[in-house]
NAD(P)-dependent dehydrogenase, short-chain alcohol dehydrogenase family
Amino acid sequence: MTKEVVIVSGAAGGIGRAVAERLARLDTHRLVLCDIDRKGLDEVIEGLPAAGHQSFTVDVGSEASVRNLFLELKNQGIQASALANCFGISPVADNGDRISLEQTSLDLWNRVFQVNSTGIFLMCQAFLQQENIKNPEQPKRLVNVSSAAAQLGGYRSCPAYIASKASVIALTKSIARDYAEDGVLANSVCPGLIDTQMFRQGNPADNVASRVPLGRLGEGDDVAGAIEFLLSPLASYITGASIDVNGGYRMA
Ligand SMILES: NC(=O)c1ccc[n+]([C@@H]2O[C@H](COP(=O)([O-])OP(=O)(O)OC[C@H]3O[C@@H](n4cnc5c(N)ncnc54)[C@H](O)[C@@H]3O)[C@@H](O)[C@H]2O)c1
């Protein structure tokens, strides 16, 4: 059986790694993992249950780097039919405090947008520019990770992060509408409080889990489950949606 090729970006991070591990366990996908963190990628790929997966060092905020990835795939005759964008940065002050709007330099604002927003644009554009992508008979699936912060106005993350994550939801909807006739399903997921490196860097309060109706922080795998669903035929009539994965922390 030919395995579907899925690109997982941000694959060295808490959520991206959980997505890679879930999809690898299914053994129906060939994974193309990418991240800016080479060492992290090596650890992830070594730990995967099945062989045949590949990893690439990619800076998603760099057009040249993203183009190189897709050129390399093309040269290898690889066409990806699914994409899960799980990268992101969420800067905090040196002491772990939240950075306010007044403390946000233009440089910080641009740096956050370069990764969280432009990175989504570049990865989705290059994915959709692959040859033969516009074939309604062959479904293509794309999932972008946004954040509950974009829906709530956030309270722990910085304004640049919150605004960049709102752009992820909007761009995903625009892709869903524009490419529906080509068989592309595009959705976002909005995680709440997920226990990863990104979450821990912001000095979470000891009792933060008590604010979540389900009474615990999320794990990377909780988000990965929703992404696996959106990448599967079970979600064949879902597009332009943003799925909350937040333990009830924010109810629409
Ligand atoms: N952890 C949470 O509580 C939470 C909540 C809501 C949304 N999210 C979102 O979930 C996604 C995954 O975050 P996580 O919690 O796994 O964090 P993480 O810090 O564990 O992982 C983020 C990954 O993105 C990679 N990355 C950063 N800049 C990159 C670049 N320029 N090019 C390529 N890769 C780059 C990092 O190397 C890292 O592996 C992010 O989009 C984040 O904003 C996380």
